[in-house]
Predict the 3D structure of the following.
Amino acid sequence: MKCHYCQGKMKKGKITYTIDRKGYHFLMHDVAAWVCEQCGEQLFEEKEVESIQGLIKVLDSQTRKISTLKLHPVRS
Ligand SMILES: [Zn+2]
């Protein structure tokens, strides 16, 4: 596989995937991806993309629930 940016060689490896969303910062280690040896461009295969998108969907809805919870004030 060739990099679509620099035509360098893409190598299968594991990367750390991070994303900033509203209300949370998501970081996942050891995600399988193709990485360009030349420019570092990262490319996911379809099944990884689907898994990550599924995760983010769940995280988004759960985060919304948590952030709308009414917290009881702590009395001291
Ligand atoms: Zn490249």
Remarks:
- The first strand starts at residue 10 and ends at 21.
